[in-house]
Amino acid sequence: MPRLLRIGRIVGLCLVVLVVLYTIAGFWVVPAVVASQVESVLAEQLELEGGVERVAFQPFALRLEVDGFRMGRPGEPPAASLEALLVDLSFLSLLTGGVVFEALQLASPRVEIQVDEDGRLFIAGVGVGGDEAEDVEETDEPEVEEDPEAPVSTLKIRSLVLSRGIVRVQDLSREPVLDRELGPIDLNADELDLTDLLRGADDPDDGSAAELVVNLGAGSRLSARGQVDVDPLRLDLTLGLEAFPLRQLQPYVARSARLVVRDGQLDLDGRLRIGASPEVPAGVHFEGTVGVASLAVSEPEVEEPMLAWESLAIEGIDYRSDPAAVRVAGVALARPDLVLVQTRSGLNLVQALEGEEAPAEEVPDGPSEEEAETAAPEVEIGPLRIEEGRVRFVDRTVSPAFAFDLASLGVDLDRFS
337-343 and 324-328: which strand pairing? Predict the structure, then answer.
């Protein structure tokens, strides 16, 4: 008996020592190692500066907290930062060979997406694509086929929360320069299953509930709610876009047309489905409505709008990509106002849509008549209503200039295709 007692004491003492060592490593060693590794990886692997202000680890709860993360190119402001990160790992999942995060929370993340003067893309200060990707040598090693019977680890996130996120988008390659901030962005996702990314499985029953809300400024908001599956990509989302200011699209409009978007708000409400499912055999399917209110578009040198309207409502949109088809239940346009000016250089509307003259390029042969007929989508539009329209025409090729107005115009057109 005394011998068994001594053995029990020794075993107990060893367990106490192990617990003490694990506690010391968890509370003090792990935070120091994580903080140093973050700086090392940023400097050596990405050639960036950065680090964290505080790291805390609770070894018995497997809970990691990181405060004050930042990273960026040397000598420049941070291209990515994070106020706080919380990672809560399930201990039981490790015993079964999987990884399950009970909670993953990001507070006030900020990411910069930049296109520099040479057209190179940087995300959080890291170059994406470019010459580096092209220089990678291909190897002749045969592809390893996965064994479908082999055990596969699981990767799941029970609760993903992103709050008060900011995305800054800069495009320095074009004039005018685009510089916008999107946010704050809030994202909530439950039961996010990323296992398919590990094993390449194709389970149509997989899917995660997600909710994304992005504040776009000036009272505008984008929301998306529904089911998401990452591999293969499947989406079934309810989308909403409220009062999006079209003036924010001006840098893109200026690339293809000599037009200035001076006013206008875009609203969208619908359901978007991407990927194979019983309801959507393949491709993209969108159902919903789109509206544009208070539009005002003019030429760059002219203050008065060339095209304006009070409201445009496109209802009952049903778009499918495979086979390509568009159906619209109805279109209503209220108080459109169009100003047409004919000069010796041409009609203002045509010149504006043509944009700047591009250098002549060799244009490839277009599709044959048979191919064009096959590729052409089926288009069907319900009743078209135009109320209280106005067209003003000015001909400055004659002296004196000739002008006339057509007011109180109305169009009532039944379904056509």
Answer: unpaired
Give Dmax over CA atoms of the chain in angstroms: 123
Contacts of 250 by beta carbon, 8 Å cutoff, 6+ apart:
176, 260, 261
d(CA 378, CA 401): 44
CB 186 within 8 A of CB 160: no
- How many CB atoms are closer than 10 A to CB 184? 14
For 395, phi and psi rounded to 5 degrees? -110, 110
Q: Rounded to whole angstroms, what are the CA distances from 365 to 2, 359, 362?
A: 96, 18, 9
The answer to whether 369 and 270 have CB atoms below 8 angstroms apart is: no
Provide the pLDDT for residue 248.
83
d(CA 352, CA 345): 12
> How many C-beta atoms lie closer than 10 Å to residue 386's C-beta?
18
Provide the residue type at 308 as one letter: A
Q: Among all chains, which residue has been given the structure tokens 């992103």?
A: 162
- Whole-angstrom distance, CA of residue 330 vs CA of residue 273: 22
The model's pLDDT over 250-307, given as tens digits with 9 standing for 90+, comes to: 878 887 888 999 999 999 999 999 875 555 556 889 999 999 999 999 988 888 899 9
The β-bridge partners of 324 are 321
215, amino acid identity:
N
Length of the chain (residues) = 417
Those residues whose C-beta lies under 8 Å from the C-beta of residue 215, and which sit 6 or more positions away, are 183, 184, 185, 221
Only one residue has tokens 């047309």, namely 257
Chain position carrying tokens 């989508």 = 377
Sign of CA dihedral 133, 113, 246, 175: negative
- Angstrom distance (rounded) from CA 110 to CA 49: 16
Q: Which of 158, 31, 149, 34 is nearest to 93 (CA)?
A: 158
Distance CA 186, CA 162 (A): 5
> Concatenated DSSP letters for 264-278?
EEEEEEEEEEES--S
Global model pTM greater than 0.85: no
Element (H, E) at 298: strand 284-298
- Specify whether the CB–CB gap between 417 and 378 falls below 8 A: yes
Long-range Cβ pairs for the range 220-226 (8 Å, 24+): 220/244, 220/245, 220/265
| Omega of the bond leading into 176 within 30 degrees of 0 (cis) | yes
Number of Cβ within 10 Å of residue 297's Cβ equals 19
